[in-house]
Design brief:
single chain; globular; Alpha-Beta Plaits; alpha+beta; two-stranded antiparallel ribbon; 2 domains
């Protein structure tokens, strides 16, 4: 019986190794074809598409080499090490954003009438608009040292270390979306209006995400904004009344919160 079990095990291992060798041969063929199709560099340097293609080819070559040298187990260990390194970097970034007491300024945004725009443009064109929008938001989040917690469809959740940085990023995003500032061809062809809501307070961080009443409040505030607007809570308006103008937007009832909540528009800096 033991001999039978060992024989079956050897057959399974042989089959697995055979499949791995087949995959390696197929990958080599794909690499050869990819290398053949990579266009030569332009006189002034490589085109962005060529650079991306070459980078992808290089990544595959490195992966295949790692499998050949280390085996599948070594490849798995390397992947886990890469993931752990990424997780450590992400946690370090979160630590840089949050204050010692866990205070962050929470930013929510989305595109006004996004479903209608998607229907009008069709999926392919809409994805191009979304990509241009995402790049624009990421540019100003990075500029003001924010951290994108997550993206959802046409919206973003971001945290900043201070309300001043959050408002500065929000103002630049809205300016960049205006006709005079916008340098994106897709966004010039299809103007969009983004709604932004901000609130500041403590939040619970877990596995790279943020939770708590203050997070929920920021999301509700964004839901009250119109396209092109930035709305903030009284906590932010009171803290930064010497830095920015905050015209009152009125008191509103927000789902899940007791009593009316005073909201404010964001004007230009003083």
């Amino acid at each position: 019986m033991l001999a039978l079990v060992l024989g079956i095990a050897l057959l399974l291992v042989s089959a697995a190794l055979g499949w791995a060798l087949f995959q390696l041969r197929a990958t080599r063929a794909e690499l050869a074809e990819a290398n053949r199709r990579v266009p030569p560099p332009f006189a002034g340097g490589s085109s962005p598409r060529a650079v991306r293609t070459a980078s992808a080819v290089r990544s595959v070559v490195e992966a295949v080499a790692r499998v050949r040298e280390q085996g599948v187990g070594g490849m798995l260990v390397s992947t886990l090490e890469d993931f752990n390194r990424w997780a450590a970097d992400q946690r370090a970034a979160i630590g840089r954003v949050a204050g010692e007491d866990g205070t962050v300024t929470i930013f929510f945004s989305d595109i006004e009438n996004s479903t209608q725009l998607n229907t009008q443009l069709g999926d392919a064109r809409w994805l191009k608009v979304l990509s241009a929008h995402d790049r624009l938001v990421e540019t100003y989040v990075d500029k003001y040292r924010g951290l994108i917690v997550k993206s959802f469809g046409d919206g973003h959740m971001v945290v900043f270390s201070t309300p001043t940085l959050a408002i500065s990023a929000s103002l630049d995003i809205q300016r960049a979306l205006s006709a005079n500032w916008n340098r994106s061809r897709e966004l010039r062809r299809t103007p969009i209006r983004v709604r932004i809501g901000l609130h500041t307070g403590t939040a619970i961080e877990r596995d790279g995400d943020y939770f708590g009443q203050n997070v929920a409040l920021a999301a509700r505030v964004a839901g009250q904004a119109q396209g092109g607007e930035i709305l903030v809570t009284a906590e932010i308006a009171e803290a930064l009344e010497e830095e920015f103008d905050f015209p009152p937007a009125g008191a509103v009832e927000l789902k899940g919160f007791e009593g009316p909540q005073e909201l404010f528009h964001v004007g230009t800096g003083r």
